[in-house]
Amino acid sequence: MAIIYGVGVGPGNPELLTRKAERILRGVDVILAPVSRPGEPSVALETVREFIDEDRQELIIHQFPMTSDKARLVSAWQAAASLIASHAEAGRSVAFITIGDPLFYSTFIYLLRIFQQQFPHLPVEIIPGISSINAAACEALLPLVEGDEKIAVVPATAGIEIIVDSLTHFETVVLLKVKPLYGEIIELLRMTGREQSTVFVERVGSPRQKVLTDFAEISAHSPDYLSLMIVK
Ligand SMILES: C[S@@+](CC[C@H](N)C(=O)[O-])C[C@H]1O[C@@H](n2cnc3c(N)ncnc32)[C@H](O)[C@@H]1O
């Protein structure tokens, strides 16, 4: 029985991978990388490509559709977990790679639950990764919280009311998954006087990184999926 690893690869820069993650990725027999659409590049895989030897290691690209259709999601999670488990049962160690941290809004969380429920005999190890939030704050030179301050992390998909509520109760609010609600968020930040205290960060750690602090620029921008906002 081999070990199943959930490996956090950080936000997209190979230098922001832990030494442990690198050691495990170089040593495993199988690596499973997630994509949301066939043929699309995997950010996690691009981040660790230099540590993988495809002559020696098997690389599996697995599709996890970006959908709210629970049945399709569950079936993709189950297929991936069963595939990983079958390799581990055959004595091959497997790493599931994920951007940022594996226990922070990651598909790995759903796979972990399946391993625990259906394959409790298989050992699982999780390697933490640098989250996009920490990397973004560092790039923006922006302290996230200090002293007694409180921080809220809100996926914008939770809805505009939740964001309003968080802005009222927390000194710092980090908004993830901002793309679908971007226009409404911009309007809310304008109405609540957050123009001077909002930072927008896209694709942190990658060559396409963007850090915007000017509200006019933030408002005019069309964000992609890998973007977040830090609001003080
Ligand atoms: C499913 S969550 C994954 C979070 C990830 N596990 C982490 O620890 O950062 C996806 C959201 O995280 C944020 N995100 C992830 N990687 C990012 C990056 N490189 N730059 C900016 N935001 C990122 C975006 O808000 C994106 O919509």
List key phrases describing it.
alpha/beta, Methyltransferase, Cobalt-precorrin-4 Transmethylase, Domain 2, five-stranded mixed beta sheet, 2 domains, 232 residues, 10 strands
Spatial strand sequence of the major β-sheet:
3-2-4-1-5
**Helical segment tally?**
8
N-end to C-end Cα span: 48 Å
The gross shape turns out to be elongated
| Broad CATH class of the largest domain | Alpha Beta
Name the CATH homologous superfamily of the largest domain: Tetrapyrrole methylase, N-terminal domain
Characterize the structure shown.
This protein is of the alpha/beta class and 232 residues long. It folds into 2 domains: 4-127, Cobalt-precorrin-4 Transmethylase, domain 1 (3-Layer(aba) Sandwich); 132-231, Methyltransferase, Cobalt-precorrin-4 Transmethylase, Domain 2 (2-Layer Sandwich), CATH 3.30.950. The chain contains 8 helices and 10 strands. The protein starts with a strand and ends with a strand. Bound molecules: S-adenosylmethionine.
Task: Set out the fold topology.
Blueprint (H helix, E strand, L loop, with lengths): L3 E5 L10 H9 L2 E6 L7 H6 L9 E6 L6 H20 L4 E5 L9 H11 L5 E4 L4 H8 L11 E5 L4 H10 L2 E5 L5 H10 L6 E5 L7 E3 L2 H6 L6 E5 L1
Parallel strand pairs: 1-4, 1-5, 2-3, 2-4, 6-7
Antiparallel strand pairs: 7-10, 8-9, 8-10
Helix pairs in contact: 3-4
The structure holds S-adenosylmethionine.
The site of S-adenosylmethionine (SAM) has 22 residues, from helix 5, strand 8 and strand 10.
